[in-house]
Amino acid sequence: MCGIIGYIGKQPATPIIMDGLKRMEYRGYDSAGLAVIVNDQRIECRKKMGKLANLQAELAKYDLPGSVGIGHTRWATHGEPNDINAHPHHDCQEEIYLNHNGIIENYYEIKAALEQQGHTFYSATDTEVLAHLIEQHHKTLNFEEAFLAALNEVIGTYGVVAISNKEPEKILAARLGSPMILGIVGDGEYIVASDVAAIMQHTRQVIYLEDREVCVLTPQGYTIKDLQAKKIDHAVNEVDWDVSQAQKQGYPHFMLKEIMEQPRVVLDCLRGRVKIEEGLAHLRGLHEYSERLQQCNRMIIVGMGTALHAAMVGEYMIEEYAELPVEIESAAEFRYRKPILDDRTVVVAVSQSGETADTIAAVREAKLKGALVLGIVNVVGSTMAREVHAGAYTHAGPEIGVASTKAFTAQLTVLALITLFLGRQRDLSLVMGQRIAKELLEMPHKMQQILDQADTIAGLAKQYGAYHDFFFIGRKYNFPMALEGALKLKEISYIHAEGYGAGDMKHGPIALIDDQFPTVAIAPQDSVYQKTVSNIQEIKARQGKVIAIVTTGDTILPKVADTVIAIPKTLEMLTPILAAVPLQLLAYHIADQLKRDIDQPRNLAKSVTVE
Ligand code: M6R
């Protein structure tokens, strides 16, 4: 959601900013802009609604020489997406320009006060208020002091970068609840950005700003301060992601590349973590809390969207094999319903980005109430990864497609490892532990067998791409997969899709079934197979078309369903890891056939950093 970049150095700022914005495109946006301090110390700003290509076309008309500048991709919150509301925003005198991610919650009050002091506003955004507020303080204070004074007044969240032509060799950046990372490129050369993707082609040396920290960049060096201007020492971290991981590598879309790399991702996720002989999972982060985990009597797993679906599968796994009561909850609800927690509750937050505002809020609430908080996070160094007590990274590498795929199967893999870890602390037998461990290591190979059928699934998409509505159904471990299959299809193809427990169909949804409303049924040969077959029969009896995801060798469903996709046999608890693959491929190929913007679907953002 929104991307911010600032550059200061000796090179022309515009190409570096545009390249950074391009690398953050995947986050989702509706307009883009940049502002550069040109050589005669004027600030030139260009911004355009729509894709970066529109801004690029605008820039082609002008030369913007200058080596200090800021850029932004905006995902609208306050004010519709248009050229005026796009960032950067400026003050009355057009001397201060800034970009902002997040929401200024008290912007009405600040705006009213500033209007009384004579400021005039041109946009419908909350961000513009911040530019005028800095301007107001700048009348008596220097740029940096005015910036701090303004931030001390605002309520809400921000990742912000600002420049002023009165102090043209300076960039100020700050964060509160919205990520901001400083990349140290060289002497006097820095990139500050909201996403490491915009930095990693220039340097691997980064500093992750903490909430309420401000970073001052000049050709003489960088300083980090708190909001009271007190200097702070920060460790420099090394980014371990490879630039090539964030490239399409010949695939037409990031989503397809990310689907295809899942066998390797799951292997990386399992590496060094499975002990077959002992039937154990070795999760370094959890060992420190081993005793507390053994004593916990309840677990709550939170997340949003796809991460919440992974959490639901985790609930089934952990209750069955670790015999620990588990609840799952949308992180967006958790915080506001006064959850009852104590020091024997473990709260697990699942998130690809580690920056989802709702999930971060849940983490903070759980910590405040004394629970042990664990994270299953993909992005190393993200806010969530730093705030939880302990956790396990998913090691899926950068996920660029807005639709989460490889991060999801990696989350399921980590949840299976946590199940093994907790189960063996409790009552899970050595033999069962060994079976789970052994079968986990088979996952990459079995996923590859499904990926080898990708062409067949692409053919299926041709048959089904013209329908306007879909049901996805499944039971037990594959009920969350029905929800996930429906989410995948709707978010990238814009086709109406709903996920239900197969047993729920008769209680209402089946009224919609006719020959124009196909159902994708996830029906591997597990403990609820017979029940799911009956539910499929009920749909067939009403002329509904059925695509069934079945276990290889199934002889019944190929006779009942219109089409089957086979997945290899595995332990029931691990079927979701395999079932995810055909669901992703089906959604991808239907969306591709409909020529949708698969990697950046309309209205969606990769990382949802506002509540
Ligand atoms: O980064 P997170 O895993 O916390 O993101 C959570 C959801 O926003 C995310 O899974 C979303 O539902 C995806 N678009 C699903 O494909």
Oligomeric description of these chains: single chain
Apparent shape: globular
- Give the CATH H-level superfamily of the largest domain: Aminohydrolase, N-terminal nucleophile (Ntn) domain
Count of the domains: 3
Give the cofactors and ligands. Answer: 5-amino-5-deoxy-1-O-phosphono-D-mannitol
User: Radius of gyration from the CA trace?
Assistant: 25 Å
Describe this entry's structure for a reader.
The chain is an alpha/beta fold and 611 residues long. 36% of the residues lie in helices and 22% in strands. Helix 10 (305-321) runs antiparallel to helix 17 (479-493), helix 14 (406-425) runs antiparallel to helix 20 and helix 16 crosses helix 20 (575-593). It is globular. 5-amino-5-deoxy-1-O-phosphono-D-mannitol (M6R) is lined by residues 304-307, 351-353, 356, 359, 402-404, 491, 604, 607-608.
Question: How is the secondary structure organized here?
Answer:
Elements (H helix, E strand, L loop, with lengths): L2 E6 L4 H12 L6 E7 L5 E7 L2 H8 L8 E7 L14 E2 L5 E6 L5 H10 L10 H12 L4 H11 L4 E7 L6 E6 L4 E6 L2 E5 L11 E4 L4 E6 L2 E6 L10 E2 L15 H7 L1 H9 L3 E2 L4 E2 L2 H4 L2 H6 L2 E6 L1 H17 L4 E5 H4 L10 E7 L5 H12 L3 E6 L5 H5 L2 E4 L12 H20 L4 H22 L2 H11 L4 E6 L4 H15 L2 E6 L17 E4 L6 H12 L5 E6 L5 H4 L2 E5 L7 H19 L18
Parallel strand pairs: 17-18, 17-19, 19-20, 20-21, 22-23, 22-24, 24-25, 25-26
Antiparallel strand pairs: 1-4, 1-10, 2-3, 2-4, 5-6, 6-7, 7-8, 8-12, 9-10, 9-11, 11-14, 12-13, 15-16
Helix pairs in contact: 3-4, 4-5, 7-14, 7-15, 10-14, 10-17, 14-15, 14-20, 15-20, 16-20, 17-20
5-amino-5-deoxy-1-O-phosphono-D-mannitol (M6R) binds next to helix 10.
